[in-house]
Amino acid sequence: MDLTIAVTGMPGSGKSIVAQTIARVLKAPIYSMGDVVRREVVKRGLELTVSNVERVATLLRQELGKAAVAILLFEEIKNIEGPVVIDGLRSLDEARILAKRGNLCIVAVHASPYTRYRRLMARRRKDDIKSWEDLVLRDTKNLEFGIGAAIAMADYMIVNEGTLDEAEKAAIHVAERIRDDKGKSCSGGGGPSH
């Protein structure tokens, strides 16, 4: 049975830094659920904007169900041996799909809306927010997708209001705990797994 570590959190919370650090500590490949959606936006001939990314994310869920992004990603990861890190879990429906590969561990990253807004405005990725209204749109969509339940059912929580160095240290601590107990403390949002 292989371990999947899925990192969740609202936009700008620091999921990617945490996921990258955990992947480095565990020497595991990392996959981004956001990249799956961005590839679909491009495949559909649309420009990478906040509204197009959110629209395609919604369309995918209408077409394939609530776990659509995980269903698409699962095809890429299902035969990988050893641990895999997923950046961007959005719901417990997605968690159930990812858990088909083996034991699932959910790590949530939290930061206040103002902290997230500042980070996203500074990041300047093409599909990032351009205003507070964009952040509200992204947050609203993520909550509609079920991210609140994924955060609430996380096996580990990192509060990320500080520096990049502090976030990396917190992620290293979580990764070491997961590694040392071989994921036994993880329930993947579904209660005790043993």
How would you sum up this structure, described in words?
- With 194 residues, the protein is an alpha/beta fold.
- The chain has a single domain (4-180), classed as 3-Layer(aba) Sandwich (Rossmann fold).
- 53% of the residues lie in helices and 13% in strands.
- The protein has 9 helices and 5 strands.
- It has helices at residues 15-26, 33-43, 50-64, 68-77, 92-98, 113-123, 132-145, 147-152, 164-180, and strands at residues 4-8, 30-32, 84-89, 104-110, 156-159.
- Helix 1 (15-26) packs across helix 9 (164-180), helix 2 (33-43) crosses helix 3 and helix 4 runs parallel beside helix 5 (92-98).
- The longest helix has 17 residues, at 164-180.
Fold blueprint:
Layout: E1 4-8, H1 15-26, E2 30-32, H2 33-43, H3 50-64, H4 68-77, E3 84-89, H5 92-98, E4 104-110, H6 113-123, H7 132-145, H8 147-152, E5 156-159, H9 164-180
Parallel strand pairs: 1-3, 1-4, 2-3, 4-5
